[in-house]
User: What shape does this take?
Amino acid sequence: MFARQVVKSPPKSARRCANKRSPLHMRSSAHGIGNQAVLRQANPAPTQTGAAAGPMTAQVLTWGDFAAVPNKINGMSANTSWTWHFDGTNFTVAFDPGGSWSVVADQTPDLLRHEQYHLNLAVLVANKANAAQAAGTLTGAALVSAFKTTLAGLESSYDSDTQHGTNARMQTMWENDIDAGVPSFPFP
Ligand SMILES: [Zn+2]
Assistant: This one.
């Protein structure tokens, strides 16, 4: 159902989704060093649109891209948000500064790396989804569903395995896997 909608009406340059309930626009959130459950934001999100020309690469983040907050929120030191959009052919993923924040006192290079790889992972899954679409192995609603399921599962595993980046060995392993295209995590 929604696949047909986006094919007919791909947003042009709107930075905010007109349809707040559209399942094709979603903010995903992930979190940095913290010792509580992962916070998930279900808010509708601004989006960026545009067909991808080849694989996307993730924006390189600095702490300046994150809103500074004075204290941990729900036990978390940082939050990285991104938006994704599917125009009927391609997924795009964009860092969302409006939903990203960090506690200034907790800004370490290690935490920034952890946050960066949240975004890298989201971009990787989008690239895999685009490849599946191009190959015709998955299209339309099935593709969107696979994208959402795969993204949510991998992002959750990333945080649980790395203990939000505090397990250095696991953090390195995930970084290597993501850089290598996560061959052990096929899409879908
Ligand atoms: Zn995290």
